[in-house]
Specification:
alpha/beta, 5 helices, 6 strands
Length: about 130
């Protein structure tokens, strides 16, 4: 058994399969999950695990070269907006409906237990070299 990092076997395996340019949608419990991508549902109950906890854990494991979020996050969820701005200075913002369209092209969806609106981000994987 791993002693550090992500312990969830489904998530750990899915992350190991990602390559350059692959998309990873990290989403709240209310985001519609598209058909197609592999889904790892971590939601246990409302707020557990939080969007911030899951995002921090993923960023410790992944190289990310870009991120896209819903523009509505700025007005509706200032905490999530601040978290995203802190990690992604070049964060791309699109309308929420467009983010849902883009999420269909993700290779992996990680669903959190977050119960606040617009706590969603589409990550684009980079390479470590």
């Amino acid at each position: 058994m791993k002693k550090a990092g992500i312990l969830n076997r489904h998530l750990c395996g899915a992350l190991a399969e990602l390559g350059h340019g692959d998309g990873v949608l990290v989403c709240d419990a209310g985001m519609p999950v598209p058909d197609g991508p592999r889904v790892v549902d971590l939601a246990f109950r409302a707020g557990v695990p939080s969007f911030a906890e899951v995002l921090e854990g993923l960023l410790a494991e992944l190289v990310v070269e870009g991120a896209t979020a819903a523009s509505e996050v700025r007005g509706s969820n200032p905490a999530a907006a601040a978290l995203l701005d802190g990690h992604f200075p070049d964060l791309a913002l699109v309308p929420h409906e467009r983010l849902k369209e883009l999420s269909a092209g993700a290779r992996l969806v990680v669903r959190t237990g977050e119960a606040r609106p617009y706590a969603n981000v589409l990550l684009r994987c980079g390479v470590f070299f």
